Amino acid sequence: MKILVTGGAGYIGSTVAGLLTESEHRVVVYDNLSHGRRDLLPTGVEFVQGELAERAAIENLFIAAKNQAQPFDAVLHFAALIEAGESMLRPEIFFRNNTASTLALLEAILAHGPRRLVFSSTAAVYGEPEAAPIREDARLLPTNPYGESKLLVEHMLGWFNRIHGLRYASLRYFNVAGAPEGPNGITHGEAHEPESHLIPLVLDVALGRRASIQIFGEDYPTPDGTCIRDYIHVSDLADAHLLALQALETRDRLIFNLGNGQGFSVREVIESARRVTGHPIPAEVHPRRAGDPAVLVASSEKAIRELGWKPKYTQLDEIIRTAWVWHQKRYAQ
């Protein structure tokens, strides 16, 4: 198949693009490089730099592909701002970038594109869950604009499916971590500028790039008082995207949670990193951040049952080990 991957120069998008090329699909990556990097692009993909909000530019991609008798068969949509904390300070840019820009993409798809889309959603659509692990039929009540911006897209997809016949899979995932292990070893991993995700921040401390790791809140209703999150390895996540894409050949609407199935607190992540790296990793406690739910843990039973998804990295130490290998490589250069 020929597949358009928006946001394909980012950490997750590039991993999925690499797996698609390994599976002998033809991949075109569309990215504005605001958070992505050209060096993350796998060999063999075609790259187009552009803004998702520019509907005409996306339409031109679809039209050109048709004119070359090589139309796109599907779109995998990753392009988005992802920082929940930042969304509590600047909600307007999240609704413009994540919601309005996705509407431009969907309009272009309806005008000239394929009728199959896999959407990178988020567990933040659930907000403070009423029960854990969270199932797909749980209440949707985001506690931050980031989650709301993604939920609005899910609402649009539901209507476009009903009215226009757009087939879609919405994949709600939690904390993605680790580095993909390929035939050439680990070639890329998680890196954001500026960095805000827990595992790379903890590993920065182990490398001496930061003095300590900050813990935001230790008074949550959890066993050790710190937030609990579900961590999924990026390679397992990429596998699920390909399985969802295949499932859309026979099904028209899919919603799946993707996660490890067990949660780890902030302190447990720090302890795991201490074991893996052999470094002490000092920690400092700070007040809670607005919009952070106490517990987010996914039930992936539906994806395992219906997609045949089989996560390979189920232990936190193993996920962090791959991230540590990448971190050492990256900052030794």
Lay out the secondary structure.
Blueprint: E1 2-6, H1 11-22, E2 26-31, E3 46-49, H2 55-67, E4 74-77, H3 84-87, H4 91-112, E5 116-120, H5 145-164, E6 167-173, E7 175-177, E8 181-182, E9 185-186, H6 198-206, E10 213-216, E11 228-233, H7 234-247, E12 253-258, E13 263-265, H8 266-277, E14 283-286, E15 295-296, H9 301-307, H10 316-332
Parallel strand pairs: 1-2, 1-4, 2-3, 4-5, 5-6, 6-12, 7-11, 10-14, 11-15
Antiparallel strand pairs: 8-9, 11-13
Report on this structure.
The protein is of the alpha/beta class. The protein is 39% helix and 19% strand. The longest helix is centred in the first third of the chain and has 22 residues, at 91-112.
Number of helices: 10
Question: How many domains comprise the coordinates?
Answer: 2
Largest sheet composition: 7 strands, parallel
* CATH topology title of the largest domain: Rossmann fold
Looking at this structure, what is the CATH superfamily of the largest domain? NAD(P)-binding Rossmann-like Domain
The topology string of helices and strands comes to EHEEHEHHEHEEEEHEEHEEHEEHH
The shape is globular
Q: Structural class of the secondary structure composition?
A: alpha/beta
Strand content: 15-25%
**On the 0-100 scale, what is the average pLDDT?**
94
First CA to last CA: what distance? 36 Å
> Order of strands across the widest beta sheet?
3-2-1-4-5-6-12
CATH class of the largest domain reads: Alpha Beta
CA gyration radius, whole angstroms: 19 Å
